[in-house]
């Protein structure tokens, strides 16, 4: 008679310091209610594991103000059983990540994050967890996007490498072939599409059962099943949590049956954790005292729903960048805008929450021909995705991209058609300056040959704050600054 064991796996990803619940008629999300749900499941079920698939940090003012220490204290309270790192875990620098990893009272793993010259892993690559007679192997996998963030540290970045994910999984699984592993779980932060591709590459002999991922903020109705591996993730933030109820065949070391749900975190399903609320309130009070003054008033609420299209907030902030910094074109990274709406009242806290990265802006010069080539690379339909780098552009700019021919049919700067040979003053943030070759498919040396980059400001957020202090009832609307036509 086969021995079946039940295991509940709860999972979150891309929480981004999302501590506070939102009051939209009812409370939704926030780590207090999420903690309440996790605690409730742990009390009701015999065997429960809670795991986090990267990007615990960055995205809230509380997290930024305390450089992730607040997040780790809160995570320590919730006590996940295991987590992998995401690309935003290095936003405060690699040394700070290693400090936070020691601060955490739960294991943080990553199998493909390497110290290059030593060919050794920076963190533990895997972890065995034993619960109720089950032995579960967790392996952590990280996206190469972490290398883009580390380029700002010219020294440390030369010593860091991301190894091939499938190979690292194979090494670990082969090493423990003689161990009686009941379940093998990849905890990844590479995006749902890449999770699916990874599942296709894995040798069935390695025995991987689940891929629980993050990075792409994907909401699913049910897990994908690829190469007999279940692949899932749980969107973004703390408004929901993924739940697997698994029946595991201990004799065959495989999942006999399962159910998976995306559980909404709200007042109807999740009790509040009042102790955790006190911890959060302690941090929030300190931040409010410093940042809770009114900065400006917008004419109405402005939005930024997606990264790969023109948005109202993108237009507002790229306009400010152009006008205040004396540019022809401000290429504002869409991913730097971390919230989907702002206003009409705007506090300093609101600004620093929506723009947590205090990045410098640099002026480069690009020819009209180079700009056309860059945007023909950026605007391909395949890059209409939240994980790719896209841009917001300022007033006076109009770009029409034909998806059928994959060519730009109209490109205007300052209201006039660009000249292929004219050099235009373009503003970009440090992250994009460091990654031009990858994001734009252009050689850095070709850009430097036009004009050596100069720093226009050390913090774009400071520029926005100064501007908003002296301007009120600002308006912004969609104008068709960037258009894709003939999309299939």
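Sequence proposed for the structure above (488 residues):
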């Amino acid at each position: 008679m086969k021995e079946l064991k039940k295991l509940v796996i709860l999972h979150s990803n891309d929480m981004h310091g999302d501590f506070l619940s939102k009051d939209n008629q009812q409370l939704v999300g926030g780590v207090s209610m999420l903690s309440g749900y996790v605690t409730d499941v742990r009390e009701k079920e015999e065997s429960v594991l809670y795991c986090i698939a990267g990007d615990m940090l960055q995205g809230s003012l509380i997290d930024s103000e305390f450089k992730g220490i607040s997040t780790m204290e809160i995570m320590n309270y919730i006590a996940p059983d295991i987590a992998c790192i995401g690309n935003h875990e290095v936003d405060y620098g690699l040394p700070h990540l290693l400090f936070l990893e020691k601060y955490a009272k739960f294991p943080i793993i990553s199998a493909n994050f390497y110290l290059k010259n030593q060919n050794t892993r920076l963190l533990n690559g895997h972890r065995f967890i034993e619960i109720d007679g089950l032995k579960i192997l967790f392996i952590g996998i990280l996206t190469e996007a972490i290398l883009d963030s580390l380029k700002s540290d010219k020294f440390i970045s030369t010593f860091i490498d991301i190894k091939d994910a499938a190979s690292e999984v194979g090494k670990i699984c082969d090493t423990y072939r003689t161990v009686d592993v009941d379940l093998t779980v990849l905890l990844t932060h590479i995006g749902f599409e890449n999770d699916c591709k990874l599942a296709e590459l894995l040798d069935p002999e390695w025995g991987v059962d689940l891929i629980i991922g993050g990075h792409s903020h994907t909401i699913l109705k049910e897990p994908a099943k690829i190469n007999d591996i279940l692949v899932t993730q749980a969107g973004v933030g703390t408004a929901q949590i993924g739940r697997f109820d698994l029946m595991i065949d201990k004799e065959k070391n495989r999942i006999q049956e399962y159910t998976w749900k995306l559980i909404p975190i709200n007042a109807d399903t999740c009790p509040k954790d009042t102790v955790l609320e006190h911890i959060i309130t302690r941090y929030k009070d300190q931040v409010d005292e410093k940042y809770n003054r009114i900065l400006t008033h917008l004419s109405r609420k402005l939005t930024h729903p997606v990264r790969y299209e023109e948005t109202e907030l993108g237009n507002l902030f790229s306009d400010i960048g152009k006008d205040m910094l004396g540019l022809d074109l401000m290429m504002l990274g869409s991913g730097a805008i971390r919230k989907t709406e702002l206003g009409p009242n705007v506090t300093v806290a609101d600004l620093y929450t929506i723009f947590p990265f205090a990045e410098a802006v640099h002026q480069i010069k690009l020819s009209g021909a180079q700009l056309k080539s860059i945007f023909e690379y950026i605007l391909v339909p395949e890059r209409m995705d939240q994980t790719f780098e896209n841009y917001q552009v300022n007033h006076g700019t109009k770009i029409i991209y034909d998806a059928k021919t994959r060519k730009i049919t109209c490109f205007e700067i300052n209201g006039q058609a660009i000249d292929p040979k004219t050099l235009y003053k373009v503003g970009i943030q440090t992250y994009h300056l460091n990654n031009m070759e990858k994001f734009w498919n252009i050689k850095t040396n070709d850009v430097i040959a036009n004009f050596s980059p100069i720093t226009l400001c050390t913090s774009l957020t400071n520029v926005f704050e100064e501007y908003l202090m002296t301007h009120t009832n600002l308006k912004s609307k969609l104008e068709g600054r960037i258009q894709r036509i003939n999309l299939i």
